[in-house]
Amino acid sequence: MTNTFPRISISTERLVLRPLDEDDVPALTEMMNDELVTAWTSVPQPFTEEGARRWIAEDVPRRRARGAGLDLAVTEFLTQRLVGTVRLTNTDWHVRSTELSYIVAPWARGEGYASEAALATAQWLFRDQRLERIELRTAADNTAAQQVAQKIGCISEGVLRNACIARTRTEDGGLAEARTDFIVWSLLPEDLEGVTEQLAEAGGFTSFSDWN
Q1: pLDDT confidence of 195, banded at 50, 70, 90?
Q2: How far apart are CA 7 and CA 4, in angstroms?
Q3: pTM score, whole prediction
Q4: Distance between CA atoms of 105 and 26, rounded to whole angstroms?
């Protein structure tokens, strides 16, 4: 029988991570059309509300049902406003590993939401799902994403040369692609020891302008 992630909600001091739903469509569409999201992800462009609905209603539950991964909305605890997403992909239930990525809306950057959401997800994966390895891949020029990985305790393992395609907007409004490297990071259960305390001593999650 295929292992699958449960439908869950994860709460932190400032955030609630929960399944995406229909009400997220407008905010999700706006976030996914941001220039930095376009640059560093493979999100289809333009990202339409129809595409958002199809993703939430069909793609997300299908991937979870077959055990491939999980998508969570990241919302502010007080306002319930969508601040980003966390995605788990390439899950291997035999190896007990998964790949984690995150996106933060433009208006919410600089608040440390990516690191807070990623750390909460990692703690849940290691504690409740008994995973043994989480992998992150960040584009070589995406320093903000690299800072988030470092902040939650990830260890840099090496470089996948020429494995990432970044996108830039052209003068006529189109997209141009350029190849770059992926930096591979890993997080093991023991890497989280002391991370929460270190973050508290450093003033919490607000040190970096994380966005993706």
Answers
A1: confident
A2: 9
A3: 0.89
A4: 12
